[in-house]
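This section describes the prediction task in plain terms. A model, or a person checking by hand, is given the sequence of a single protein chain and must write out its three-dimensional structure as a string of tokens. No templates, partner chains or ligands are provided. The sample shown here is typical of the held-out split.
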Amino acid sequence: MSVVVALGPVDRPIVEKHLGADHVLVSDPGAGDLAVAEGAIVRGNVTVDRALFDSMPRLRVLARTGVGTELVDLNVARERSIPVVITPGSNTNAVAEGALAMMLHLTKNLAGMTELVRDGHWGERDNFPLGDIEGSTVGIIGWGRIGQRLGAIAAALGATVRAFDPVAPIPADINCETLAELLADSDFVSLHAPLIESTRHMIDDSSLAFVKQGAILINCGRGPLIDIDAVHRALQSGKLAGVGLDVFDEEPPASHPMMSDPRVVMTPHVMGLTQKAAAQTYADAADGIRAVLEGKTPIAAAS
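The expected answer:
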């Protein structure tokens, strides 16, 4: 009977079902549980460093919910031949819908309109122009599963889609050769790029100089893709008309002056955690662990 530990809260019934009868799940593991663990399911905000690996000397496989592995020391995993299972695709639609929801919230000024009705200022509604997705240009940075799904949704709503990706290929008819080209063309900019050295703070003062006046910026990718101080300056100047954030440099984030701006909508890194997406993520993680423990190859692994 193999012991699998949960490092962070998981849906126990789903994980147990997919692990099968030959593997036992331990929630809230102590030092003794870690010492005998052969598998571990890691939630996204848990850091797996060398010390944590050392506490699990029998570990054979680690599964990370989602696809980001920046909090896992992959070098240690490689040294010890421990595959790091990831769960691509489990939350693709959820995150794309979340980015779209933020776009709609901001361009339709839902918070402002709610306040007008609640405070009895109906007659002032003409003072707040509302926008549309249809006829706009939606620029997507990062043409992976989520970026492609958002592109399909935006196109279905009548938007022109443009895309930029420093790594992945993009269809020629929507490809922007540079980030500056995409920013200059787009009414909405949505970030879905992986966090690598070349994408860290890719949205900063220098890149925002190219952004289209009145654009809306959405980040449901990785917090460090943007320099929040630079984004705040662009919002204050009117260069940006709105900002939507589901991810932050540090989570939970420290207070920032931009957070009090009514043109900003924020969520606590939950756009990929709808009930359906979370269930699929836990199932995929458990399936990957079971595969390795039973001598098979997992569907997706970072190392």
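For orientation: The chain has a mean pLDDT of 96.
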